[in-house]
């Protein structure tokens, strides 16, 4: 397992504190679960796509524009006791933190968002119960779905989440929650070269190693690509995940379309469009030209298709 650089490492002391905090409030979370409805009242939206393709900004746009519920950075600290986290987040931030943050709600770096009200992917919640190799038993998936229903009811609105791990269990989750209650929204960064460069940058930033794997995968993907050189491995990761996620999507959004016209790009995910994102919301998504890397990846992509 590659070691993260200091800028992205998770302090052990903080992790231990949060583990203890979750354990300490487990009884309160159980009490809240008794008081929370187990009936599905709103849709679930899972955002899927290759790493660095725009999944964060799409989830942010859906949360903001449709006033959908999402996991804040505060709630994410309570991955084992999410109902407590949601109540605490509501108490501190109110019920519409995305609107309170405005354009800052859309600021992120490598998927990390700003402030207590920023959108979090809730990776610890998913990984706590659902192995990324797809080996979770149906009973475990059922329990996770029951927790999702309670989280949604605690939020009091549709729930949007990044769904890289959920996608591994797409068939089970869709069956348990109900086909008409779940949307799998796939985003594609049509500029393949920039998508690849962004993954390369993330590998270097997170691990100071361009050979270290970055991003989620489907079962068996990393093993399939592990003996390839870094650039070709990244190209394979992007193209294979596009096929994987695109094949399960109920809705498809192009990142370029989202940036140009969010209303049309998001049309149909929910019945009613609520509001436009603030001016400048998507500025952090734009890239600078880097000719040497662009040429290198272009050669690899051409080789990949030969």
Structure description:
The protein has 306 residues and is an alpha/beta fold. It has a domain at 18-189 and 249-285. The protein has helices at 12-24, 26-35, 55-65, 82-93, 97-101, 123-129, 138-155, 164-168, 170-177, 192-207, 221-225, 230-248, 255-260, 262-266, 291-305; strands at 44-48, 108-109, 112-113, 159-162, 182-188, 251-254. It has a 4-stranded parallel sheet with strand order 4-1-5-6, with helices on both faces. A two-stranded antiparallel ribbon has the order 2-3. A hairpin with a 2-residue loop joins strand 2 and strand 3. Helix 4 (82-93) packs parallel to helix 7. The longest helix is centred in the C-terminal third of the chain and has 19 residues, at 230-248. The protein is globular and about 60 Å long. The model has no long low-confidence stretch (mean pLDDT 95).
Describe the oligomeric state of these chains in a short phrase.
single chain
Question: What structural class results from the helix and strand content?
Answer: alpha/beta
Strand order of the largest sheet: 4-1-5-6
Supply the number of helical segments: 15
| Terminal residue distance | 32 Å
Radius of gyration: 19 Å
If you average the pLDDT, what whole number results?
95
**In percent, how helical is the residue content?**
40-55%
| Strand segment tally | 6
Q: Quote the beta fraction.
A: 5-15%
- How many strands, which pairing sense, and closed or not: the largest β-sheet? 4 strands, parallel
Shape: globular
Instruction: Summarize the helix and strand pattern as letters.
Output: HHEHHHEEHHEHHEHHHEHHH
